[in-house]
Amino acid sequence: MHSVAIVFHSVTGTTRSLAQSIATGVRAEQIEALELEIFGADIQHGRYENTRLLDQIERADAVIFGSPTFMGSVTAQFKSFADASSERWTELRWADKFAAGFTIGSNYSGDQLSTIQYLGVLAAQHGMLWAGLDIAGGYDESGRNRLGAQSGLIACTTDAVVHPVDLQTAQYLGARVARLVKKYHSAG
Amino acid sequence: MHSVAIVFHSVTGTTRSLAQSIATGVRAEQIEALELEIFGADIQHGRYENTRLLDQIERADAVIFGSPTFMGSVTAQFKSFADASSERWTELRWADKFAAGFTIGSNYSGDQLSTIQYLGVLAAQHGMLWAGLDIAGGYDESGRNRLGAQSGLIACTTDAVVHPVDLQTAQYLGARVARLVKKYHSAG
Amino acid sequence: MHSVAIVFHSVTGTTRSLAQSIATGVRAEQIEALELEIFGADIQHGRYENTRLLDQIERADAVIFGSPTFMGSVTAQFKSFADASSERWTELRWADKFAAGFTIGSNYSGDQLSTIQYLGVLAAQHGMLWAGLDIAGGYDESGRNRLGAQSGLIACTTDAVVHPVDLQTAQYLGARVARLVKKYHSAG
Amino acid sequence: MHSVAIVFHSVTGTTRSLAQSIATGVRAEQIEALELEIFGADIQHGRYENTRLLDQIERADAVIFGSPTFMGSVTAQFKSFADASSERWTELRWADKFAAGFTIGSNYSGDQLSTIQYLGVLAAQHGMLWAGLDIAGGYDESGRNRLGAQSGLIACTTDAVVHPVDLQTAQYLGARVARLVKKYHSAG
Q1: What domain range is A87 assigned to?
Q2: Which of chain A's residues have a Cβ under 8 Å away from the Cβ of C144?
Q3: For residue A153, what is the domain's CATH number?
Q4: Residue A29 Cα, gap to closest chain D Cα (Å)
Q5: How many domains does chain D have?
Q6: pLDDT digits 0-9 by tens, C5-21
Q7: pTM above 0.80, yes or no
Q8: Are residues C149 and D111, on separate chains, in Cβ contact within 8 Å?
Q9: Contact at 8 Å (CB) between B32 and B4?
Q10: C45: nearest Cα among C76, C69, C86
Q11: What is the pLDDT confidence band of residue A187, given thresholds at 50, 70 and 90?
């Protein structure tokens, strides 16, 4: 069965909520969704050690990366995970998997794009194929992608609660990546 | 007298409104503000030709660059101006001037940061000193910087009218750059 | 027959050389390559008008965007083309096509990444799927990707001649995108 | 006495070498240079705790941030430090200090700009004033800034030894920031 790994770090729980909605979207397309959370307990002196999680990513057909935007980019915890992926990088063992990204911040336009662009750089290093949001901001009938970013899902919370439209957009992103996996792996 | 040049391209008039508010902020600090608009008529085959405008920038103590965010960055017209500045680049004739940037888009987080980061790259090429917004999003008593960007002023319009708080923030940015000019040129 | 459009602006001819090598790589995979050059003559007052070229892109299965890095990003001429693509953006008529990017500059690390990231933002706005270079810098037996960028092809010229390894890497990028097209469109 | 803090994380020692050359450049201008290294031992579960270092930054007139480029951005260890600076961010206690950045990677153009741009975003969040390299790549008589980046110092090492020209450029960057501090604080 095809699968999509959702790898994320959450501080207050809002990123986890987005990850869950993405997983819902993936599953709605009859694709397995793996919710892989990054925990501080796996980080020693700034180094992330969790071979099992890295192996799970390797078996997935697509990976959706997520982190809150904190001081202008992904959290240090997420970056620890990214750094740990360097072993797989030299052999390009994640190449040609689809990839996407999501983030949330406490402002509408508070450097979330910086986070998404970093996730894109990380995916490019691994030779992955980046899928953004194919919803032109302001042109969706359901109002999804309310903040208008397309390189990835940018969400905003002001009170530690995720906006329902952002959750809906997250679900859409999960479904989109799942559909890409189905479309492009049906050839076999 | 010290002066701040505001160099911008405007399509619908909203960027011009922001430029005017920035100028108001500059003048409130008893510093001259030059509003220098980039016009399509000065562009032939993609090349901008207006030596006078480039000379005016050269005489200013600081430069604030502005453009709508269009298809993910500054407009082609603004880029034509930037390309034309290459002659001054090799001799670094704008070095050590303070610089700042502003942009507006029709979404809250629709790649405006990409525009601001480009303006920062342009300023860095010229050896300029980049000043962002020293207002932490969500922490200002007057509510300024409502979208939370700090690398530059990011505004958003949904109906071709600029939000009054964005204009207020623009005024603040102008005043900030003017104060930097006064502070750092009072030594001589 | 499947096709890849290579859309580029060239100033000195080096970007055109890279485009030709990319086309060679595409054709080696038995996929049609369309070399679509952006000319200043099609730009009036900063606006690009060439419906035929935009239509050709629409019929292609993948698009590889290229521009020299000039004053920190794509040239104004390329940006005029990007701005003209906004009509297709609102309807997302290029969505789900594969996309990639290439650039060249006169320094090893002179903001070419800024250009590539802009091309990625443009592709994301169109809902395209971004493919970088799946060659870890320094780990290729043939020495390709000598500068080590992976988000796109970054080349460098010091004397208006393109380095043979950069041309070889360009050919590889064209072949890679062609293979992605073949792999992912064989399902139908 | 005026001072410049150089805050960096080093993995193999090359970033430390650059930091030392920057310090040499600062001291040549009769300004105190503080070399503040970030150590993994101060990071617990991804969180950096070292109030003394943050206090030292607060007393400095300028801050030069440095990190190797690892998996496309600053190291997780550096990011832990950046995340820890968030307390000072809400009060903007580092505002109006000059800031600059440096990085090193094992490729000529392997995403070092992504690192520098992140450092710029971090500085902007703190309301700092960003100074890049005022040396146009290829136009310096001494050959400094051999890689041509200007948003910050980008260096490259292939054998864990820093290129002498990169060290020379680092020294220049330190001197430049020190001169800015002297020029702009002589007014008082």
Answers
A1: 3-185
A2: none
A3: 3.40.50.360
A4: 32
A5: 1
A6: 999 999 999 999 999 99
A7: yes
A8: yes
A9: yes
A10: C76
A11: low
